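Exercise: predict the fold of this chain.
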Amino acid sequence: MTVMMLIILTIYLEVRELAFKDKIILISGLAGAQKTNLCDIFEKKGFKSISMSKFIYKLMQSSNTIVTLENLMKQSLYIRREFGTTYLAEKCIEEIKNDENSDKYIIDGVRTLEEVDKFRSTYSCVIVLAIHSTPLGRHNYMVTHPKSLVKTTEEAIILYRFELNLGVGKIILLADYFLFHKGFVDRSKEIEEKVHDFITLMQEKTGVNKNTSFR
């Protein structure tokens, strides 16, 4: 084996070893795309899931703010205005740094490019995975889900526009990987199969082409 071949083999093995070491996967998608279901599946694969929204809920709880769709949107804007556009990302990063039990993280609910940039300026291995489904599928899932704050078509439209104004659409368009499903009902089984394909791709290939779609 030549020296050059040995160097190439060493680099290959190092990159392969890093395939899911200290890996941060950022999940983005519009409301009703089943981001939480996706994160639950990654948790089963050994990832630790951190929801960005939980930091919003904590602040709402501390101020005794009633949890409604309108208040949630207002609080989201307030946090970014008062504490900075990367505040929620910083809270996630703080939790990661204080965690000694995992080296693989899935971040649920990234909504701005500033948040993506914050993660990428902090960690070398950051992947953006967008999840998407049809408008009718997202709507039907939201209005029928027992924990959803969205109960009507009008509320769904308001929330979509709010998220698009924040920048979710840009993240979806610029995502490294794209997972699409039909929506309507809980698609956990379908999503799990696509997560398996995604993880297999990441583990078996190095220098894999990004902007891959899992349909």
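Check your answer against the key: Residues 188-204 form the longest helix (17 residues).
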